[in-house]
Amino acid sequence: MPEETPFTAAEIGALAHLYRGEVYRSTIWRTRLDNTTNWAVVTTGIALSIAFSGTTSSPVPLLLVGLLVIFFLSLEGRRYRYFNVMRARARHLEKTLFAPMLRGQGVMLDPAARELLASDYLEPHHHISMATACGRRLRRNYAWILSIQAMAYFGKLAIHPTPMAGPQEMFERAAIGPVPGELLIAGGMVFHLAWIAFALATYVVDRKNRQERGSRVAMG
Q: Is the dihedral of CA 34, 35, 36, 37 positive or negative?
């Protein structure tokens, strides 16, 4: 383990620039995350507009947009893994360097904290899995988008072209060509139950990992 030696003035300046760089890079990746979410919101809005543009409009766009939203979620999960690295590094510097400095404890990083950050620069890697990244973005943003998509689809079946009289009529309206409505609705329920289960499962795993680390942020 490295000795606990104070930083020189030049080293402190270098760390300050390093921190600024990590904050800048995390801001760039944060913007990319927002872009992907915006794409999902816009495409869902377009599907809603098309489906509800008339009483005879097909509900098919509402089905297809659900698959498109999952595609955007996978892209955002990949981007979040990169963002998480920059965010964790910046937060690590804040907690172990700048916070002690503000408390008057000097500018000395704990040796273990130094080694953790140095190792992350020497051997850069993602701190979380793709499943964890997608789970976080799903719980924060995409769960709302998918919930709106589901409600819009069943709302479309319920009111167009006339208010629905019973379950059998809903199945008839949901049918697409040779594909029966019962199959499509059952598939939709499986789809939404699957992402709900995925969100809950990744939450449990993510929370367990954070408890084992003893931190919500540091390198993960």
A: positive
Tokens of 16: 């300050």
Contact between 117 and 93 (Cβ < 8 Å): yes
Closest CA to 209 of 136, 116, 118: 136
CA 8 to chain CA centroid, Å, is: 40
Residue pair 100/108 in contact by the 8 Å Cβ criterion: yes
134-171 b/e (C-beta count within 10 Å ≥ 16 → b): bbbbbbebbeebbebbbebbbbbbeebeeeeeeeeebb
Rg (CA), the chain: 24
CA atoms within 13 A on the CB side of 107: 11
What is the pLDDT at residue 93? Answer: 92
**Residue extents of the structural domains in the chain:** 9-213
User: Which of the residues in the chain have pLDDT under 50?
Assistant: 1-2
Q: What is the pLDDT of residues 171-185, one digit of tens each?
A: 999 999 899 999 999
- Check: CB of residue 132 under 8 Å from CB of residue 76: no
User: CA 185 to CA 204: how far, in whole Å?
Assistant: 29
Task: Please say whether the beta carbons of 107 and 47 come within 8 A.
Answer: no
Helix 181-213 and helix 130-137, axial crossing angle in degrees, nearest 10: 110
Helix extents (H) in the chain:
9-51, 60-93, 99-102, 111-122, 130-137, 143-159, 167-174, 181-213
pLDDT value of position 209: 85
